[in-house]
Structures are given as C-alpha cells and as structure tokens.
Amino acid sequence: MKQxxxxxxxxxxxxxxxxxxxxxxxxxxxxxxxxxxxxxxMKSVEEGTKTNERYRTEDTVEKMMVEDKDCQFLFEDGTGxxxxxxxxFEQFSMPADILGDSxxxxxxxxxxxxxxxxxxxxxxxxxxxxxxxxxxxxxVIKGQTVTSSYKPAVLDNGMRIGVPxxxxxGEKIVVGTEEANYVERAK
Length: 187
Fold this sequence. Notes:
This protein is an all-beta fold.
C-alpha cells in the first residue's frame, strides 16, 4: 500500500530494496532552506542490519500489509522480550533491541500492538503516550515559570527528557513515546 513518506511512523514495516524493513526511528525535518524531509532509521526484518534513509515528504513508500495483534508484555530475560497474544494466550519472544530508544517505556503488563508477517512477529508499536513519574529534576525557581524553556528531568524508567519549569520531582507526567517528549501533567 503506497503511503506518503511524510506520514512514516515508528513500527511501520516498509518495502525497501525488495525486502521488509521495520522503522525504528522517524524524524520529520524542515530546514530553513529547501523542502522538508523524513530522516528514517530502519532495521532489516530478515538480516537484522540497520540503515538510514532520507525521504522527501512528497515521496511515496510501500507500506507492507501486516497482521497486527494486541499482545501483553510479560517480562525480559536472556532470550529477549517475552509477550503473550491476548486472543490465543500463545507466548513468544522477540529481540530486546526491537524497540530501539523506546525500550524504557515498555513496562510489565503493558498491552502493545505487534505486527506479524506470515505469523512471524516483526515489530512492536507502543502506546502513543505513557504516564511516568519524575524522579529527579531541578527545583522550581520563583518567577522562572514565565519562560518557555525546559529543564532536564530523569523519569522512573531512567529516561532523560525536558520538562517545563513548574514540574517537580515526584509528579506524574504524560510522555510521548515516539519522540520521548513531555506532553502534559497526568490527571
């Protein structure tokens, strides 16, 4: 199925040079001069090799037809990440590096969408947003909340992201999993 390159998302499986590749990173870049483009990092489903590719946003890519199944993450061990299919309760394992930089967002019991080609699991799609707790950040400075700058924070999963100045340690926040960015305070 042809898709515009500007709509590429992490977890997609596309055909590249006649073979299936899983998108592990996708960044939309709009330089000051010239047209916008997508910088994409892909991993080969068959060989496990990685490559980077740059697509103009108006280019098209062939998104492969895959079967998506909801699965629950059980645990990680020496063989990799272990999941259970929600409908059949069948358990299977996938390599731990399948999620790339998004791996810290995967927590035990989380329901994720796993793409299959010919009944072979090939990619994991996390929920778009997760709730995390801020473990460590700089204290709030009175009057600093007026600026729109972000300060560094460490989350309960070990990730480092930028948060607004009014966020304090111990607060729960919503984080976007694709770009590891602050979205809002958790309700």
